């Protein structure tokens, strides 16, 4: 069974993770996508959920802070805390 880049990225240790059970992008929410200054987040139109499409995060946190359901989590590396 072939895997899409989205499937493979979801299994990696990405700095930004989206809890698909809490994400309401399927209801029209795009807050995390809109606030990311690097345009790292996108909406998977087939699933109706947000995901991190590139691993270039600056850990600036607006995606986590502004998410209305708390679906977005940013894992800040230990040395940057």
Automatic annotation (TrEMBL):
The positions making up the signal sequence are none
Write out the GO MF terms.
4 iron, 4 sulfur cluster binding; metal ion binding
Q: Which InterPro entries match?
A: 4Fe4S_Fe-S-bd (IPR017896), 4Fe4S_Fe_S_CS (IPR017900), PSI_iron-sulfur_center (IPR050157)
Q: Which GO terms describe its cellular component?
A: cytoplasm
Tree of life domain: Bacteria
Task: Report keywords, A-Z.
Answer: 4Fe-4S, Iron, Iron-sulfur, Metal-binding
Q: Keyword Metal-binding on this protein?
A: yes
Keyword Metal-binding set for record: yes
**Record domain 4Fe-4S ferredoxin-type: where:** 14-46, 48-77
Q: Name one Pfam family in it.
A: Fer4_7
Record's protein name: 4Fe-4S ferredoxin
Per the UniProt entry, what species is this protein from, by scientific name? Burkholderia contaminans
